[in-house]
Each structure stands twice: as structure tokens, then as C-alpha cells.
Specification:
Layout lengths: L1 E3 L1 H8 L3 H9 L6 E2 H9 L4 H11 L4 E2 L3 H18 L3 H12 L3 E3 L3 H4 L6 E3 L23 H4 L13
Parallel strand pairs: 1-4, 2-3, 4-5
Helix pairs in contact: 1-2, 5-6
Length: 161
Amino acid sequence: MRLLDTDVLIDVRRRYPPAIAWLASLPDRPGVPGLVVMELIAGCRDQREVRALLREIAPFRIYWPTEADQERALRTYARAHLSHRLGLLDALIGECTVGLSATLATFNVRHFRAVPGLVTEQPYTDSAPTGGSGTQMPPEGTLTADEIGRSIRLPVGLRRG
């Protein structure tokens, strides 16, 4: 089983070609931690963008941390927040992934190293270029967030429902 972290899902939403090619190559549809969806909602500017996001992630199964995952996340966060700059949501996402015995597809491997037993993968060679503020910027010739608007069109092999 594979879960997508926020950075990878941003690339998919922006239709970054390496992200789309990687997603299309997977034999099974990955899942998404509910906390990743909440992070993406936090980046929305209005209800129209929230509705579009929810339509776009509808093909993916959402996974939530269990009570045991949350207890491990608390211990991990207490130990690694200062030493590894592990964020609260990353601790929960990481421990949710561990609890599912899944692999987390992410480019944020540095912070996630602090989560014991977490298996991560960098799913394609490069994430979309970032702007000076660290925000993801689509490569030239791809759609902007506004142009994506209504709904992402997943490759046919991933349109199971």
C-alpha cells in the first residue's frame, strides 16, 4: 500500500508531467491521509477551491490515524520536534502510514526520517520547481491552479470507482 504526501499530491493537482506519469504507472491507486487533505484545504482561498479540491481527491481512499497511531505520533513528536524539526501534522501522517504498514510517497524525507519504522519513497526524479517562498510553482507549459479549477482528469487506469 502507498500513501501520498502533500507535496506529491500538489504536483498531481498541478498536472506536473513526472507526477502524472508516475501515478499512471502504479498498479494500484494510492491512498491519501486525511490530514494531507486538510493541509490542502488550508491552502484554498475560497469555497470554490475547496469544492474543486474535494472533487479532485474523490478517486483516492482517505486514511485517518488510529488511536494507536496518535499515541505513537505524540511520542515521536515529543522526541523529534526540536531535534529534527518534525511538524505536528508530519508526525501524525508518518505514524498513520506506519500503522497501515504502507509506504509514504514524499519529497520531505528529511523530516520524516524521525518517524521510526516509516518507509518513504521519492516517487519520481523531481518535484515541481518551487518559488522563492517555497511554494510549488508549475513548470512552464502546465496548468496553473486557477486553470485546473474544476477537476483533475486521472489517467484511465486510475478511474476505478
